[in-house]
Each structure stands twice: as C-alpha cells, then as structure tokens.
Amino acid sequence: AQSVTQPDIHITVSEGASLELRCNYSYGATPYLFWYVQSPGQGLQLLLKYFSGDTLVQGIKGFEAEFKRSQSSFNLRKPSVHWSDAAEYFCAVGAGGTSYGKLTFGQGTILTVHP
Amino acid sequence: EAGVTQFPSHSVIEKGQTVTLRCDPISGHDNLYWYRRVMGKEIKFLLHFVKESKQDESGMPNNRFLAERTGGTYSTLKVQPAELEDSGVYFCASSQSGKGNQPQHFGDGTRLSIL
C-alpha cells in the first residue's frame, strides 16, 4: 500500500526567505505525485503535479518540486516566500490499477511566515 | 468555470441524528471523490465514483455511511446514525476522465460536528 510522509508538522520562515517542504512516499511503481495547499477556511488548491518526464516541475504561485526516485522524495520549494504563502501544505500520491482515483495524503505541513 | 461546490459548509448535529452532505462536481467531470479529515489526522480517501458507479469504496468506515451519485451528476454522503467519531471535515473532489493522471479539484469542505 502506498504511503506519504511529511516529516515537518510546522515550519516557520521569514518573509523573503527560501522554503523547502519535505515529502517522502512509498509506492511500488512510478507514482503520480501532487502538492496541494489549503488556506484557512478554503479547500485544497493544486500547486503542481508530477506524472512523468522532467523531474523538476513548475507550479503556480512560484512553487516548484523535484521528483527524486532514488530518494523516494518529492520536495516542494520556493525561492522567496511571501506572507500570503502562510497555509497548510499537503503532499499526495495517486494510485494505479483499479484504485486509480485514490489519493493518499501526508499529514500536512503548516507554514507560518514572519514579517 | 464553477468549481466543486459543497453544501452545507458547516453542520452541527447530535449523536444519533442523520446528516446528508452534498457535492456538486465541476461540470463534465466523470470522476467524483469523497475524503475526510478527522482533527489531527491526515486526509483520508472514502470513495470514488465514475459517473454513477462506485469505482472504489474501500475507504468507507462502516455501513452508517451511504454515498450516492444518481444520474452521474451531484453526489450525496449520508451518515446515519451519526457517532462522535464522525466529526471532521468532509471534502469532495472531481476530475476529468483518466486513469489517475488527471488532477483532482477540491471543494471547500463540509465541517461536521457531532455533539
């Protein structure tokens, strides 16, 4: 069964600093990988996705993520954080086969941005 | 394009009562999913519809939960009778046709509180 681990429950950064949110997955085949963000009171918004091809994927709001098969990781990065990036971030892996619609989520990482 | 819409946004009921949550997916999306996040836990998959058929209901907790998608459009999730442990945020998502390689678009969720 697939699983996702986000080791950091809570991260605090200063506005303008760089950001890296960690995500490790466990899945037997080539995974479909996603990062979602949830701002307070809102639903989950897709930041970016990886299905195949180039291992560095660009997303919305200046985010990028790199798929590293050897490390089973899909870390999210942003070179300069804005106060509006404060939210909870979720890494997810998509299944294949008959359960192709099932997303397995990590525990989430809460990002606090200091001015 | 309208997004995924969920009703109600909040529901507070007493243990033993019945509650029905509704989800309207993005128009034209054949895939519809239900997820739940219990406080302090990760977001967990409940089930997946393809049009009006249940593709995968492996995440449904027990037979107190009944999901329907008559006509392949909107979906309802009924909890009867509600128990304290059913409290949480219930998310609905939809995606276009595809075998897991289509991103899921989420609604804002229904926050369910069982007293």
Compact summary:
The complex is a heterodimer of chains A (115) and B (115). Chain A has 115 residues and is mostly beta strands.
Strand-pairing-aware structural class of chain A:
mainly beta
Shape of chain B: globular
Percent of residues in helices of chain B: under 10%
Q: How far is it from the N-terminal to the C-terminal residue of chain A, by CA?
A: 41 Å
CA-based shape of chain A: globular
Assembly annotation: heterodimer
Q: Could you tell me the mean pLDDT of chain B?
A: 93
Largest sheet of chain B: 7 strands, mixed
- Category by helix and strand content of chain B: mainly beta
Rg of chain A, nearest Å = 14 Å
Question: SSE order of chain B in H/E notation?
Answer: EEEEEEEEEEE
SSE order of chain A: EEEEEEEEEEEE
Q: Which percent range describes the beta-strand content of chain A?
A: over 45%
Q: Specify the number of helices of chain A.
A: 0
Low-confidence stretches of chain A: none
Number of strands of chain A: 12
Question: What's the SSE blueprint?
Answer:
The complex is a heterodimer of chains A (about 120) and B (about 120).
Chain A: E1 3-5, E2 10-14, E3 19-21, E4 24-26, E5 32-38, E6 44-50, E7 56-58, E8 64-68, E9 73-78, E10 87-94, E11 103-105, E12 109-114
Parallel strand pairs in A: 2-12
Antiparallel strand pairs in A: 1-4, 3-9, 5-6, 5-10, 7-8, 8-9, 10-11, 10-12
Chain B: E1 5-7, E2 10-13, E3 19-24, E4 31-37, E5 43-50, E6 53-56, E7 65-68, E8 75-79, E9 88-95, E10 105-106, E11 110-114
Parallel strand pairs in B: 2-11
Antiparallel strand pairs in B: 1-3, 3-8, 4-5, 4-9, 5-6, 7-8, 9-10, 9-11
